[in-house]
Amino acid sequence: MLVLFTSASDSGVVVYNTARAVGSSGSDYRNLYSGLHLKEMGLSEKAFQLAITGWTKLKAKGRISKDIISICDFTKSSNQKRLYIIDLASGTLLFNTLVAHGKNTGEEFARYFSNNPSSLQSSLGFYLTKEAYTGSHGMGLKLAGVEPGFNDRAEERAIVMHGASYVCDDFINQYGRLGKSWGCPAVPFEVHEQIINTIKDGTCLFIYYPDKAYLAASRLLN
Fold it and tell me: What's the longest Cα–Cα distance across the chain?
């Protein structure tokens, strides 16, 4: 394994691993999960399994143009690096970094989720990445939620990926938790342009939390 960013203060980690890639059926996900040591890095196997399930269906429908998946594991503390970006074709972990949840979703831990405008909460489920743009936070990435009732109002709510100064170790050290967004999966400024350029234009983003209502109703997971 070659680790390109290794110090504890780094906001992102880029890792290469020769684990076998996931095929179009998603059947090799256990091998990839093990080969990339994702359990040791804090990503729950359940989150990864569900992410691959939804990705496989979106891939079969022709809605994904690049075999890259981004997983926000919101079972984890916001003080942990809980965003995992994986190239499924090559079996490569591209980034593992901090990611914020919404202001009204919780303090250190995410707890509450909504699809409603002005809720300032994160929304669960699968998204497709769209084009990059330049806005008030610099480079941003438009996201289209594809889960009716759970995140399909993301564009109406201006839920995007962007860089934020409050997504960093210094903020955690000062306040005991990561900063919070208005519902956007905000990432560290140090790596936000790299991340956005990697996942823009037709990749899959999955925001996971074991919410019973979501898990029972998601069309991509059932």
Answer: 45
Amino acid at 102: G
β 83-87/68-73 pair status: antiparallel
Instruction: List the domain boundaries for the chain.
Output: 2-217
Please give the backbone phi and psi of residue 97, each rounded to the nearest 5 degrees, phi first. Answer: -150, 175
Note the pLDDT of residue 37.
96
Q: 151-174 burial, b if ≥16 CB within 10 A, otherwise e? A: bbbbeebebbbbbbebbbeebbee
For residue range 142-180, list pLDDT tens digits in order: 999 999 999 999 999 999 999 999 999 999 999 999 999
Q: How far apart are CA 168 and CA 146, in angstroms?
A: 29
Please give the CATH number for the structural domain made up of 2-217. 2.40.440.10
Q: How far is CA 58 from CA 3, 127, 154, 206, 207, in A?
A: 30, 10, 18, 12, 15
Rounded Cα–Cα distance for residues 100 and 83 (Å): 9
3-class DSSP assignment, residue 38: coil
